[in-house]
Every structure is written in C-alpha cells, then in structure tokens.
Amino acid sequence: EAADQAKKESIKLAGMKVPNRPAPYFMDYIYQEIVACFPDGETWLQQGGLKIYTTLDPQAQQAAEFALKTGYKTKQWKENGVTQPQGAIVALAPESGAIKAMVGGLNYQETQFNRITSAKRQPGSAFKPFVYGTALENGLTAATLMSIEPKSYQNGSGIYTPTDSHEF
Q: Which phi and psi (to 5°) does residue 102 adopt?
C-alpha cells in the first residue's frame, strides 16, 4: 500500500544552490586548468592554502559582463530554463594572449555552461581578419587575383584536396 502511494506522488527535486562569486566562468576555467595540469590539483584546491595569481582585469571583466547583459537588442525567451539567445565574451591581451575578461554566458546562476571553453561552434567570419592580415603581410593586396583551380596537398595519410561542402 505504501509503495502504491509513493508511485502516485510526483518527484520533487531540490534545486542546487550556485555560489555567487565574481567572474564565475573564469574561476571555473582556472579550477579546470589547475586540475588538468597538476595530478594533485583538485586536492590542493579543496584543501586550500594556495595563492593563485591570474591575468583577470576586474574592470575589463565588469565591462564585459555589462556589455553582454545589455547588448542584446532582440527579444529574449527561456528554453529549458535558460535565457535565449546566449552569448559569450573573452578579452585577451594582444601582446601576450593573457585572459583579461571571460564571460561564458548571460547568467551563471541559470547555467554554468561556459560557451567560451565548452561550446563547439564554427568561428565563421571571425577568422577573416587573420586570413587578410596574413595575406597583406605576405605582399598580397585587395586587388590580387587568386586561382580558383582545385589544389591538392600531401599529408600524413595521403593526398588532401579541399572541397566546398555546399551545405549551407
């Protein structure tokens, strides 16, 4: 009889309390890097006593968080309890590549998924400045004509010929 009653009751899950801390996506990233780089990293972090110095710039972090939260001009909605659309910002020091700010999503309390370190997305046109910059450094100009003939390259497993997928 107790089993029948238990089957009729709906399951109520207790919500997990997410700590509110500065730069949470960056802090998670640092934690993961220490665990990945040092065999005893997780133990060290849990026991405390470490002094960890990072490149995070608090002003840049605050500006990145503000920009992401206020930058959307589109209508927002919830999908599976997470505000949509999502976004991410990472600011790097150009001379060293040091991370100055990292915001992995709109709201860490809603989702701890870091879109910078974990999302598998195509970079799209974000690579164009690097391609164009390299071309300019190598003497090409906007007027330089390029061949569109197929080209093949020898690699470790044979010959590779890039093709356009035509899937867009």
A: -150, 120
